Task: structure prediction
Amino acid sequence: MQKRFIILLFIFSVNIFNITSKAGVRDTLQIDEVTVTATKYKEDKNNTPLTISVIDRKVIDESSESALLPILSQRVPGLFVTQRGITGFGISTGSAGMVNIRGVGQGNKVLTLFDGQPQWAGVFGHALPDTYVSGEVERVEVVRGPASLLYGSNAMGGVINIITRNQDKEGVSAEANMMAGSYGTQKYMINSGIKQGKFKAFITVNHDRTDGHRKNSRFHLTNEFFNLQYEINKFLKTSAYVALTQSKGYNPGADFNPLIDNWADMKRGTASFSMENTGATASGALRAFYNWGHHKINDGYAANGGRPQSYLFYSDDHNAGILLYQNFNLWTGNDLTAGIDYKNWGGKAWNDSINGNKATLVNKSIDEIAGYVIMQQKLWDKLYLNAGVRYEYNDQFGGEWIPQAGIIYHPVEGNTLKASFSKGYRSPNLRELYMFKPANPDLNPEYMYNYEISAGQFFLDRKLYTALTLFWIDGKNMIETVREDGRPQNRNTGSFVNKGYEIEAAYNISSMWNVDMNYSYLHSNKILQAAPKHKLFAAVIFNLRGFSATVNVQSIFDMYTVGENPREVDFTLLNARLAYQWKLKHNIRMTVFAKGENLTGHIYSINEGFPMPGAIFMGGVNFKI
Result:
């Protein structure tokens, strides 16, 4: 009853806003964003065959979130992120931050990128959600579906491409953000940028800490990011960045089996250098990257009669590579992109006892090399044909062909119709191959086929936008842990069929009122953890003379929790944010804000045995120059 009341209240509010805001409509929607993720060159996302969601800096600022993934979980249809507490996702047993897109994501099936370069732990293969903080992000481009043609393994279910920040305006800028609230939570961020002629630099530092809403669940994180860019001439520019993250989180264990002294100390780094060229008929880049990490983990002991561990777990990992690609305009309406990727990933993991004895679990690295080509042809200013293929060779598993094809049609102004086919691909990680009891060195890669059609339409002089996407996914050769002679064993025995649809709508009612929503429906032929059957998000935003108010609702229905015995759960979260901005002397803008999450205090769990906190309140201040 409570859920129905919240949804009805939200719909009623939207109607009232519509009635009271008929005059002074000036804003138009910018849904036709230029993206690079689906093509590796700048292109209107409505002219690419893949389904893409774009989250810009304005949306990130309005959220007052320091972590990036919760924003995506709300704003991107079909995408869901697991959480276990007020802040911090953690690593190892009991951690959260698993990303599902259209029900695909368990393990490392959704690839995270920084400026097109892969980011994941070389030993375990998974993403590192605590390293993705909002302060260093200009925008995020999410491909909802396979992107293995351009990005290879791990882009099986989709891609999250984090476009990092730089200084765009001439001169110097600076920003500081401070907030505090429930459960001793504190969040701080400071950044500064400079642009002088052809030179740009941007630096940001982020620090989060919390006591946690459960005993033994405290967490702290510090992140530093530094970006440099130099424009050699109008055709050539070079850039480099370094990002560092240090965090320590405590896992209280499931509420039915609490733990003591279970903690994970994580240090991560990534560095990149790139050279980009842009011309009238060609553009491309050479990128080199290196990601590294050092993890130290105490598995803890049971609160009821357990004994402290006699060892600590350690791992050192890396993920490095060189990416080279070039786009050519061979003739009118044509784009041809060709590229070569080289990657090396792996590392070492071991247990170190208190008396200094080491037990190595794995010490290995794997090489991958791939080449790809993709062509798009524009016909009659309305029709786009797109096709490409990738061949990826892995020194552990051999070669794999990855095709993709699509068609885009604009029958009338403001309308887009798309249809596409794409193959997703993922090679096993070192944990699945060599570590712990289920390990199996004879595993083969997983793959899936994705078919989708979509339609998007602008109305009311581009003030209203709606889109519908239908998809059908066929997964093959999935790695599952099965019982053989009473013992667990990883095998390529799994398969799945996921199908469903996604709806998006956004309406600039006036210069003061904006509303947007998304809904996704997912049906699978098997039980999927952390993949909602129904996912709804809707938001109302009001702005007037420095004052802004945001109210949003997220509803999750028919979702299975993460754990050994998943159960079906439903929950609805009501969130709000109020802010007021003043213009001070010396071009300083000060914003005071307060926000609340889960305002109804709904009790729910995403990870089994890890109840989420009730109502959370935060307040803070932001300064910008």
Observations:
- The helical segments are 2-19, 57-63, 69-75, 148-151, 430-434.
